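User: Quick sanity check before I run a bigger batch. Here is a single chain. Can you write out its predicted 3D structure?
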Amino acid sequence: MLTSLKIENVAIIESAAIEFGCGLNVLTGETGAGKSIVIDSINAILGERTSRELIRTGADSAKVYAVFEDIGDDVKSMLDDNGIECDDNVLIINRTLNRDGRNVCRANGFPVTVSMLKNLGRALIDIHGQHDNQALLQPEKHCGFVDSYADDGELIAQYAEAYSELCRIRSALRSINTNEQEKAQRIDLLTYQIDELEKADITIGEWDELNERKALYNNSQRVIENLNSAFEMLKCDNGGIDCIASAASELERAGTYMDSLNETAQRVADIRYELEDAAEIIRDSLSELDFDENDLNEIEERLDLLYRFSRKYGQTEEEMLAYLEKAREELESISFSEEKQKKLLAQEKEALRKAEELADRLTAVRTEAGRKLSDAICSELEFLDMPNVQFAVSRKEIPLSENGRDEIEFLISANAGEEPKPLARIASGGELSRIMLAIKNVLADGDNVGTMIFDEIDTGVSGRAAQKIAMKLRQASKGRQVVCVTHLAQIAAQGDVHLYISKSVRDGKTYTEIRPLLSEDRTDEIARIMGGIEITELQRQSAKEMLIAAGNG
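Assistant: Done. Predicted structure follows.
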């Protein structure tokens, strides 16, 4: 149950705190006072899409806080699955909307995503807005109502999986059954590419190695000159090694008289030996340098081949080899297409059997649920002052689709003796409101959502029908919390909690205030709804009588 809502900087609401109660909560006020903003704020808490336009002019962010008490087991299970602690069956949700587009959402202080918030929202509140009536005018939406009543979600999920597998197999079959000429052309191309790549015998790392060898060949004369110079400097008479050897000998003789020089003499001797090794390496390198113009031509040809392949098969050796492997797999797939086709045809037959079996089960469940739903709605409509209405759930069989093989449409006959016809053709606005209320009440009996919100369910109704809707809302609120935005005195009088929304202009800015009404204030508000600008004593008396009749006097 939603117990409190705090709104900051949402549209024309700078700051408002609303306390909801058990039973029927009604919100009234002049048009444009901000009733829809309250509903928008609740939608934000429920993870619905929002806009930066909701943020009050001059503010950097908008914030909404909601407290839910006595949350159900479904909600607690969802919180537990997401590692969110919940004490005393209380859930506090807050959402901050920033002008830069960032959303910050928290549940009991734990960060949550908008997606997680939306899942929680479905289990906390069921909101019926004015646009929901339009769903009744769209036959493609009607199957969803029947499925909600049937509670056949598990069966729908099984069918969806089976139908998806059937579609996958059929797609694979279509891929195999391509035009034979196209297939032959593809085989030729793949064969040529595989042969070309296999003959190239590409190895990973050879591109870099070839470029290094090419650089060495192109600079071979300079390298030889450098090595010869280095060798001469080390090995020529009185060259580097001879000088260091002499230095080592001199230090060794001096060390006879100065012990401190012995270590230095040894270090210089070690350097001499290392230079000897270096000189040998240089000599070996010179002997290995055997440059042939043909070798350079081969390197350049190989590099050219790798460059051309990089334009066709991938920029690196790894990508070229991966292309080769993929081409082999595709060629094998095409070459063995007949065998694969037989296998897929067998799989398709089994997948079709399974999908049709589940579709038949789905049809049976929907047919039974449609009959019961029709009876339940007719019973509700009779109470809502539509005793002669016939409501029927029509089903036509269609080819297997993602929704089974059922095309479901709601039919209605508003007058006795007339055949039921599509709802969209004959239902008035007032009838749609009452039918949607009936559907909501019937569906609510099967779910665990603790709060239902109706945003102007009274559209297009008045008089006796309005009184019946008010009574039905009051009846529905006995088993759960109901919040209703209304312009009808009959509904306002039935409320266990009456919240009044008003707006005013101060210092050039618009402000909205939300406050609970008691006693005379409530009488005056109901009289205003009944009368208009000037409230008469007779209207006040009528308002008092309505409150007394509703048990709120």
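The first strand starts at residue 2 and ends at 10.

User: Great, the batch can go ahead then.
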